[in-house]
Amino acid sequence: EEGAKAEAGKPRSFHACILPARKADGTPRFAHKGEEQLQQMFVDMGPTQYAAQVDLSPLPGGMQPLKEEYFTKNFYRLSDIGHREGTKFIVNEEFHVAIFVDLAASLEDGADRTAIIVRASDPRGHIYILEAQAGHWLPSEVFARLTRLQRQYEARYIGCEKGPLRAAYAGSIINWNADHRAHPIVFASEIEVGGGKNRGMNDRILSLEAPAAAGMIHLLPDHKALHYELVAYPNHPQKKDDLADTAALCVLNPYRP
């Protein structure tokens, strides 16, 4: 009973579809209990109808908080914000580059993935996604990727959600910050996620709706995995939202001159 009360108190995100007990032709819509039992149920319930909650996965068009057109209308080209110099990509002077990472510890296929997103932002608050990666990686692989991306884009810092996984990566993070003082790994409490409040993942992703609708979030056309996670949320068929959550951290952390 205590466990049930605790579960009931948690915020939930769901969509319900209410259907009449009988179809238009008068036949029962749900006859899993058998016709006789169903008829008796109708008698017992009197004029009251009953309904079923239907899990819509993925959500049908028009019901997603993050609409397809929010992103397809605002694709950009790398040449819009910078240029390449050898293996590096140099953004124009007005842009600021940072890397955001959502750390995961398990290598199991069904577990959360580590997600890494490289983001450029400008003083207007527009967000340009440069790289979006996710996978089940050992800490050594995660930091090898961070090193490559930091050098490639000259990111000023790496933002990481503050949470229990900080301990799992503590040694690696300490070593990184000792070797990379000019572009350290900082945590949510230090980079003012959501105006200083550590929002839950659901709130963070849903907070993308306003800037996305305003055309302030820009993806490259080949960011297909991130694009699909965003428009399918919260009912991605494989329940994947690691990239979408990391994208939300990118948007909630302000531009730094």
Average of the residue pLDDT scores: 76
Percent range for β-strand residues: 15-25%
CA-atom Rg in angstroms: 23 Å
User: How many DSSP E strands?
Assistant: 8
Q: What are the segments in which pLDDT stays under 50 over at least 5 consecutive residues?
A: 10-17, 50-61, 189-199
Compute the separation of the termini in Å: 52 Å
Number of helical segments with 4 or more residues: 11
| Overall geometry | elongated
Helix content: 25-40%
Summarize the biggest pleated sheet: 6 strands, mixed
Query: Biggest sheet: strands side by side, in what order?
Result: 7-6-3-4-5-8
- Identify the quaternary structure here: single chain
Compressed to H and E, one letter per element, the order equals: HHHEEEEEHEHHEHHHEHH
Backbone structural class: alpha/beta
Overview of this protein structure:
The chain is of the alpha/beta class and 257 residues long. The protein is 34% helix and 16% strand. It has 11 helices and 8 strands. The protein has helices spanning 2-8, 35-45, 68-72, 139-153, 165-168, 170-179, 188-191, 201-206, 209-213, 224-232, 242-252, and strands at 82-85, 88-91, 96-102, 114-121, 127-135, 158-160, 185-187, 217-218. It has a 6-stranded mixed β-sheet with strand order 7-6-3-4-5-8, sandwiched between helices. It has a two-stranded antiparallel ribbon with strand order 1-2. A hairpin with a 2-residue loop joins strand 1 and strand 2. Helix 10 (224-232) crosses helix 11. The model is unreliable at 10-17, 50-61 and 189-199 (pLDDT under 50).
